[in-house]
Amino acid sequence: MKEIISSPLLTGMIVIGLIYIAAFSLIYLKKAYTHCLELGISKEKLKTVIKSSLFFSIVPSLSIVVGLFVLIPVLGTVWSWWRLSVIGSLSYETMISSSVASAIGFESSVQMLEQATARQFGVVMILMSVGMLSGFFVLIPLGKKLCMSVQKTENASTWKYVLSGVFMMCLFSVYVPVLLIGDTIQALVMVTGLIIAVVLGILSSRPGLKWLNDFIMAFSMIGGMVSSLLWVKLFS
Amino acid sequence: MGKNKDNGTMDSFQKWSHSWGRIGTVIALVYMVAIPFVVLSVFDAVPSFGEVFNVATFSILLIYIPVGISEAISYTPIMGSSAYLGFITGNIMNLKLPCAVNAIKLADTDQNTPEGDAVASVAIAVSSIMTVIILAIAALLSTRISFFFEIPQVKTASNYIIPALFGCMTLGLFSSTSSGDKVVKGGVKGVLPVIIIISLLALFVRITSGGSLFGMVGFLIIGSLPIGIITSRILWKKGIITVEDNPQVKKNE
User: Fold this and answer.
1) Best interface-test mutation with A: which of B74, B135, B160 has the largest number of A CBs within 10 A?
2) I need a labelling partner for B221 at 20 to 30 A (CA). Which of A127, A206, B97, B196 fits?
3) Entry pTM
4) Rounded to an integer, what is the distance from CA B91 to the centroid of its chain?
5) What is the ipTM of this complex?
């Protein structure tokens, strides 16, 4: 297994894949940015969006790095790096890392990394690569239809406006009760994030603090996460 | 605004995104699936079909498949044509979707409009590049920086990113409903049955096992969407949920 996870071939293929993903993102960025200008969105607003998105992405990306270090002992550096850079999601990849060893007959992930054969690691690689494709079987053929179903146009039925909001509302209607009722610490972290967002929202209306408005989500997310240390100490 | 709008259909960027985004996604997927097969072939270690797909490995697929389907159905209408890029770079709920929501709000645009899609695409592209760079640096310096990311406090805080995000996004949800030309009044009534059902389920699980439904969210969303859509449709037809001109936009005009 070790010869595969540290092979130059795997590293090379993954670097090429990441260059492709970065290029894909850059093309999207250029196309979307130009189109925003065509639609009359000012350069200043776009600058704010880019600055805020960059800043906002730092902390979740660092959380993904934490996940990277959870996965490295199980899957090696290169494969973990790849999995968290594309398709994969921090929560599901880390969940899988804990079950993958037992699924192929090992008692622990450490034992898997030490003793798994190349074929056994192959099973893990293939499973992780094909498993998450299920979403694309929906997105690729139905993505356009799903977007059109909620697209708000000048002559659209008012139902489209309602439907457009239902997806987001459903997401919140599931997550919020699960977080608030299911786990005390999760509930407290969520409420802390909300309170910080409200306070920052009020502060940002004051002269001189308007810039805060661009970073409300980022700051309240960081505040919520940091507060978890206190809540864990108090309630665990 | 609205220079390139194609009334009743999609604008030029959305059309581009749905065609080239789809092609780019297919290329990426083929490449992703090819990687293990190419590498394993070189090492003469391609496992048999039975080794990959059996009862033991089914547990892994059971995590992946429903989550993937649920994410595609529930997130695509929210992300619009930027969904292709979001899905290919992953980490949607903990990064891309909140980033898009934040950008749409900052640019004073509305979800599911040409402007909203273009702004969301800018945000998701920027975020994706940022994540690729940070992860590349982390992977390259993994032996030197691992100590920091293994500090218990850092690990603990990282576990709570989703609740922290939902705290601030809940506020954003209310303000985002008032952007755009129209505003939906009473939209939350359409998802009340979902809130009640999920709350009762969460309470039941908490009382009986002390656990949480957090790991089941993917399944719950997929089950909740039809309930939310049907209830909203009924209430919209009865005039309980209404769509009105946004007074804020009128005032600005």
Assistant:
1) B160
2) A127
3) 0.82
4) 8
5) 0.83
Task: Per residue of chain B (253 residues), give pLDDT as tens.
Answer: 444 444 457 889 999 999 999 999 999 999 999 999 999 999 998 999 888 888 777 767 776 787 788 888 888 988 888 999 999 988 888 889 989 988 998 898 888 889 999 999 999 999 999 999 999 999 999 888 878 877 888 888 888 888 998 888 887 666 544 456 678 888 899 999 999 999 999 999 999 998 889 878 878 888 899 999 999 999 999 999 988 877 665 555 4
Two tokens, residue B7: 């009334």
- Regarding whether B113 and B152 lie in a shared domain, the answer is yes
The token pair at B65 is 């498949």
**Whether residue B133 is found in the same domain as residue B234:** no
Q: How far is A59 from chain B (nearest CA, A)?
A: 9
B64 and B112 together in one domain: yes
Q: Is B38 left (phi over 0), alpha (psi -120 to 50) or beta?
A: alpha
Note the residue count of chain B. Answer: 253
Tokens 């902390």, residue? A59
Tokens linked to A216 = 């409300």
